[in-house]
């Protein structure tokens, strides 16, 4: 009787075991397939610059060693499971201790870990190196987008500070040092193809080295949970050849030109002056009577609250690099351009036929509906009364037409 129920239990057990292993196998297959995704710009196994390469040179052998150890352990467990399965044999003789095995199995992992430790330390120190920096860019995390501020660096033609957002533009083959901080909560800057992560902490400056071997776009995302719209706080680093970078700098330093007299864009400019300048800076923008729209219109200053829009059309994305300013096809053309072609494509910016009007209009119609933000004055208890993001301004479709025409002139 007892034997019988034992047997039934054993049958039930093995069914459960089989089900669990089937589920595990299924999950691993999915994970493996996901690992093979073709269009995976944030793949940590594809370094595109020296810093990411250093990490890769460390992680590959570590994964290999861990993999071999894993296979040996699983093989030993499997062997023991089958070899010593209960077949009704007598209980083996009970002994205590196997000193050689115990000491050996303590020393071996210690040696392996110490070996990995030496290389890990070396890589950490290599990655922290800053004394051969060639360019400095200040990076500020915000809820939920990144601001980039290029201090004056004459050798690159940066004769005035440049402020931009979303897409960080750097010259390829140049050791760029990011000086990161944050205006609100902790964020983390991460472009997997170029380097590991670094937290951006309010009141502190952390450094992170970026260097891209080839021109191209490298995608990333904020990797420190930073509140409501953390999931749509993305960023891209754009590497341009040195000549193309110089051309980009020149473009960024220019002030916004006034739209032609009597055009729709000019009407858009006055809507912008009424609705948008309390948060957004456009360098060089003046009121109808010729007086400056804000205190220092000639200066490339940051607003402290919202992205500087002077050269909106020179970037491909908006609102935390989470929506495209380019239509799908145009964006694909830029992403897939060869490294020789890339600079030309990127510098062309967002042309009229490439502008993704659908998403830009959706943003102007009701930004918080697209990206959750603390922008409703009646719901600010969570933030202690502070706004975060762009409110729904209740614009008419007429005003949106005008604004789109105006924004399209901000090359
Ligand atoms: Cu963030």
Describe the overall structure.
The protein has 411 residues and is α+β, with helices and mostly antiparallel strands. It has two domains: 42-85 and 97-128, Helix Hairpins (Orthogonal Bundle), CATH 1.10.287; 133-411, Immunoglobulin-like (Sandwich). 39% of the residues lie in helices and 15% in strands. The strands form four sheets. It has a five-stranded mixed β-sheet with strand order 3-2-1-5-8. It has a three-stranded mixed β-sheet with strand order 4-10-9. Strands 6-7 form a two-stranded antiparallel ribbon. Strand 6 (187-190) and strand 7 form a beta hairpin. The chain is elongated, with a radius of gyration of 28 Å. The mean pLDDT is 89. The structure holds copper (II) ion (CU). Copper (II) ion binds next to loops.
Q: CATH class of the largest domain, please?
A: Mainly Beta
What compounds are bound to the protein? Answer: copper (II) ion
**What spatial form do the alpha-carbon principal axes imply?**
elongated
Separation of termini?
86 Å
Number of domains: 2
Element layout with pairings:
Layout lengths: L1 H34 L14 H34 L15 H29 L7 E8 L2 E6 L11 E4 L1 E5 L4 E7 L4 E4 L6 E4 L5 E5 L5 E6 L12 E7 L1 H12 L10 H12 L41 E2 L4 E2 L3 H8 L3 H9 L9 H9 L1 H4 L26 H11 L4
Parallel strand pairs: 1-5, 4-10
Antiparallel strand pairs: 1-2, 2-3, 5-8, 6-7, 9-10, 11-12
Helix pairs in contact: 2-3, 5-10, 8-10
The protein binds copper (II) ion.
């Amino acid at each position: 009787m007892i034997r019988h129920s034992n047997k039934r239990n054993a049958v039930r057990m093995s069914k459960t075991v089989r089900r669990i292993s089937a589920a595990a196998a299924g999950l691993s297959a999915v994970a493996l397939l996901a690992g093979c995704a073709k269009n995976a710009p944030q793949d940590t196994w594809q370094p595109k610059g020296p810093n990411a390469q250093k990490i890769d040179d460390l992680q590959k052998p570590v994964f290999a060693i861990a993999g071999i150890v894993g296979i040996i352990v699983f093989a030993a467990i499997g062997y023991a499971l089958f070899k010593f399965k209960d077949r009704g044999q007598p209980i083996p003789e009970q002994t205590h201790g196997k000193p050689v095995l115990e000491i050996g199995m303590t020393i071996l992992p210690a040696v392996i870990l110490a070996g990995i430790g030496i290389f890990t330390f070396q890589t950490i120190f290599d990655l922290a190196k800053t004394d051969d920096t060639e360019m400095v860019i200040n990076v500020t995390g915000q809820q939920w987008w990144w601001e980039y501020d290029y201090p004056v660096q004459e050798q690159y033609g940066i004769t005035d500070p440049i402020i931009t957002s979303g897409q960080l533009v750097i010259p390829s083959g140049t050791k760029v040092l990011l000086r990161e901080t944050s205006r609100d909560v902790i964020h983390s800057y991460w472009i997997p193809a170029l380097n590991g992560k670094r937290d951006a902490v309010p009141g502190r400056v952390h450094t992170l080295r970026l260097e891209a071997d080839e021109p191209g776009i490298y995608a990333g995302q904020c990797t420190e949970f930073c509140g409501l719209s953390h999931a749509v706080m993305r960023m891209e680093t754009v590497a341009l050849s040195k000549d193309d970078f110089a051309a980009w700098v020149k473009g960024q330093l220019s002030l916004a030109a006034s739209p032609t007299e009597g055009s729709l864009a000019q009407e858009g400019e006055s809507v912008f002056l009424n609705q948008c300048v309390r948060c957004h800076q456009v360098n060089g923008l003046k009121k109808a009577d010729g007086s400056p729209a804000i205190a220092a219109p000639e200066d490339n200053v940051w607003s402290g609250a919202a992205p500087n829009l002077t050269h909106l059309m020179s970037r491909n994305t908006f609102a935390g690099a989470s929506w495209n300013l380019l239509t799908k096809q145009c964006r694909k053309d830029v992403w897939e351009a060869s490294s020789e072609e890339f600079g030309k494509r990127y510098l062309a910016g967002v042309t009229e036929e490439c502008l993704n009007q659908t998403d830009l209009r959706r943003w102007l119609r009701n930004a918080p509906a697209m990206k959750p933000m603390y922008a409703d004055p009646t719901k600010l208890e969570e933030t202690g009364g502070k706004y975060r993001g762009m409110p729904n301004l209740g614009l008419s479709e007429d005003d949106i037409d005008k604004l789109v025409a105006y924004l399209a002139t901000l090359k």
